Amino acid sequence: MFDAKIFSRWGRADFRGTGKIDLLARSGNVDNPDRNWSPWKPVDISKDGEMGVPPARYAQWKVVLHTGNSRPAVDTVSLNYLPKNVAPEVDDITVQPGVHYQPLPKSIGLNLGTDVSGSSGTRFDSPVPSTHDRDSIGVKWSAHDDNDDQLLYSIYYRGDGNSQWLLLKENLTDKAYSFDASLLPDGGYTIKVVASDAPSHSPGEALTASREGRRFEVDTTQPRIDNLAASVDGGQIHVRFRAEDGFSSIKRAEYSVDAGEWKYIEPVGQISDAKGENYDFRMSPDNSKDPSPEHVVVVRVYDKYDNMGTAKTVIH
Known about the structure:
Layout: E1 2-18, E2 20-28, E3 41-43, E4 56-66, E5 73-83, E6 89-101, E7 110-111, E8 123-124, E9 130-144, E10 152-159, E11 166-172, E12 176-180, E13 187-196, E14 208-212, E15 216-218, E16 224-233, E17 236-244, E18 250-257, E19 263-265, E20 276-283, E21 295-303, E22 308-315
């Protein structure tokens, strides 16, 4: 019994042998030939060898050997079939901001083909090499096709609140792709991968399948520091400013005086969890290092995605 794995059309039987031999064939859709299979049908091996059995997943052949002047012998019997095309499947999508995938050499993929029993071969996908790059967004996916067709992929994106998918890249053969994060304005997005088996089929017969990944966020714009002011009050330096970010919350702020080490600053509300935070703090300058009456105060703030904004002021 031959298992085509997929509902298939059965064509010719290629037969090689000698002597008086009858070849018969039948087909069915369950793995038990005694249940609802087609009746045995003679195959005219002296002509075109057309089996003429109904389309089905399984097929079976048998030979009847007749004694005569020469001893009958069977060398080979091969069944030709055309599996019904089924759409590919995209199994999973991973979107990773800060990851850059390296293109794979085209010879890396291994396909072990089909063995003599008719079971499909196993395809091994090599791990995609990646590097950390905070300016990149990496998209990786897994997909398969039950016909073992060659697949092409297209990547689309859609921003929060938008209804239309926009093409990011098409005609990809690798299952990973990276792009510059700055191509997308700050905001939330969803990626969709579309797989097509067009390379293995005639125009008009190709099938596609798609899958959407989980929502992710892009923020490549540094936070802004407004109204930085510093003054000397009672021998201390009094500093005030406001940090603003257009998309994500302010994560932390730091200050440095006269190129000294960076020190953490709490916002006025003590919890840094908003897109805008106010800062108001005092510190004593280290005049032992520099007795000059002039001091340089530098502040820097980070948003949720580690974009940094800086500002400085000079106190006389």
